[in-house]
Design a protein that fits this description.
By secondary structure, the protein is an alpha/beta fold. The chain has 2 domains: 16-64; 75-157 and 168-309, 3-Layer(aba) Sandwich (Rossmann fold), CATH 3.40.50.300. It has 9 helices and 12 strands.
Length: 310
Amino acid sequence: MSSAVVSTSAALSRLFVFDEETELEACSSVNVCGFQSTIKNQQSAIPFSIGDRKSAIENSVILASRLEIRPAPEMAASGIPAIDALTGGLPRGCLTEICGPASSGRTTVLLAALAAATRRGEFCVAVDAGDTLDPHSVAAAGVDLGRLLWVRCGESLPRRHRGPEKDKANSAIRERRAGDNQAEHRIEQALRATDLLLESGGFGLIVLDLGDIPPQAARRIPLTTWFRFRRAVEHKPTILLAIEQQAIAGSCSSLVLQFGPMGNGLLEEAPERTHLLTRLNISAELVRSRLERKPARSTAAFSSRTAWAG
């Protein structure tokens, strides 16, 4: 018969788990100052406590096969059939980035999206960070102005009165710094307005137009701001559309489209030595899509007609 010897009082306060046969033999030989029955009771209670903890952990852990599948977002028409064929439309409850340089079709997409949303009877917001939106062009594109809120962010910073400048180089540096401060001021206004509008709700489309903001200033927007926007628009029937020169939201955007001119865009000639620009051919490239729908192609082409061309 095997025996277990407990020689120190510190060992009595520790709990040990033995095999069933070993436990009986060990407990029969342990007799230290009358602690034999106490050790038996503690050892017999250990398997029950471990089993309870194991069952509690199993109940708190959700198997991967039981996780709820996030439904695909509802898609809304962008107003441009080529874009709808490429992406299925603009996703609600998500951030979509429209990127491209000047004369790349960004404004065409902006106006088309606003016109399509107002035709659906939705209220829209255009947060104009560069204060460049033309109301006549908006009306000519078919946007219902009664359903559009135009947030202008062109308020200038207060200027400080300075004495006569003697050094032209220092004057140029100050002007450049003033331009950077002006861009940062407009970005701050636009971000605050967008944050308030997302939290208030009730809008079908919110456009954050940063297209005329220098890329170096737009890239200084903290990534936490885009995360906050993504969380704010999530589970809402709102389309958040960001117009930019370069993609800057990172993984926070669900859809990224890159636009650019295709060809020279000169389709008609009116007298001999003069070319009349009536339409601009635009190429759209699907850069990133986190949606469930997998497009068969990643590029599309469409045309933007001038207002005087009908």
